[in-house]
Specification:
The protein has 208 residues and is an alpha/beta fold. The chain is built from 6 helices and 7 strands; from the N terminus they run H-H-H-E-H-E-H-E-E-H-E-E-E.
Length: 208
C-alpha cells in the first residue's frame, strides 16, 4: 500500500481506504478462485495495482469519461483506475465468468459506484466508449480489429479516443504496421522499481 502513496500522494481518504482494502479482498478471493498467480499475490500492489495506475500517469480521465476494460480478469486495470477516477465510468468485461464475479464482488465491497461488469466476449459488446484499456490480452492489431467499433467519435479528453494497453517487452514487431497511430510511454520513467524496466503504456489513437 505504501508504494501507492509514494507515487500518488494526493489521494483522498476514501481512495486510500479503498486501495487499502484490496489486499485482504484479493487474498480472500484468490484462495477460492485463482485470479492472480499464487506466487504473485504478495506483489499485489506493485505488480497489479501500481501497474494498472501506469495509465493514470499518461492520461487523467475527465469526469464523464466512459472506459471499457477488455479482458479485465479479476479487475485489472479497471478497479484501480475506477478508484483513481471516481467520476469516470468503467465497464469491466471478461469471457471468464468466475473472474468477472470476483471483480464485481470487489468493486461492491469497496463501494465503487462507477463500475459495472459483463461476462462476455468483446465482440458481443455493442456500447461505445472514449477508451478501451487492457493488460496485454492480445496483439495490438487484433485488438484494434475487434474493438474499434466500440469507440466514440466525440472526444472529451486531451488524449484522442482509442485503445490504451499495458504492455511489456519488445514491441517493435507488434507495432511495425501501427507506428503512425501509436504513442508509447516507458513506465520506468514514472516508477523506479525494477519490475517496470520493461513495462510500457501504449496508446493507439483511432479515428472512427
Amino acid at each position: 500500500m505504501e508504494i501507492i502513496k509514494k507515487y500518488f500522494p494526493n489521494l483522498t481518504e476514501t481512495q486510500l481506504e479503498q486501495f487499502a482494502q484490496l489486499e485482504a479482498l484479493y487474498n480472500d478471493w484468490n484462495a477460492k478462485i485463482n485470479v492472480i498467480s499464487r506466487k504473485d499475490i504478495q506483489n499485489l500492489y506493485e505488480h497489479h495495482v501500481l501497474h494498472s495506475l501506469g495509465i493514470a500517469e499518461v492520461v487523467r480521465f475527465k469526469d464523464g469519461t466512459e472506459v471499457m476494460d477488455f479482458g479485465t480478469g479479476g479487475g485489472f486495470p479497471g478497479i484501480p483506475l475506477a478508484i483513481m477516477f471516481p467520476e469516470a465510468k468503467f465497464h469491466l468485461v471478461d469471457s471468464i465468468g468466475k473472474k468477472v464475479r470476483v471483480a464485481q464482488a470487489i468493486a461492491d465491497s469497496i463501494g465503487l459506484k462507477n463500475v459495472k461488469t459483463s461476462h462476455a466476449r468483446v465482440e458481443e459488446i455493442k456500447d461505445k466508449y472514449d477508451f478501451i484499456v487492457t493488460r496485454a490480452v492480445m496483439p495490438l492489431i487484433d485488438l484494434v480489429k475487434i474493438s474499434r467499433k466500440n469507440l466514440k467519435k466525440e472526444m472529451i479528453n486531451g488524449l484522442p479516443n482509442g485503445i490504451i494497453a499495458l504492455k511489456g517487452g519488445e514491441l517493435e514487431r507488434e507495432m511495425a504496421t501501427m507506428k503512425k497511430i501509436c504513442t508509447v510511454w516507458d513506465l520506468s520513467d514514472y516508477f523506479e522499481e525494477e519490475y517496470f524496466e520493461t513495462k510500457k503504456v501504449v496508446h493507439v489513437g483511432l479515428k472512427v
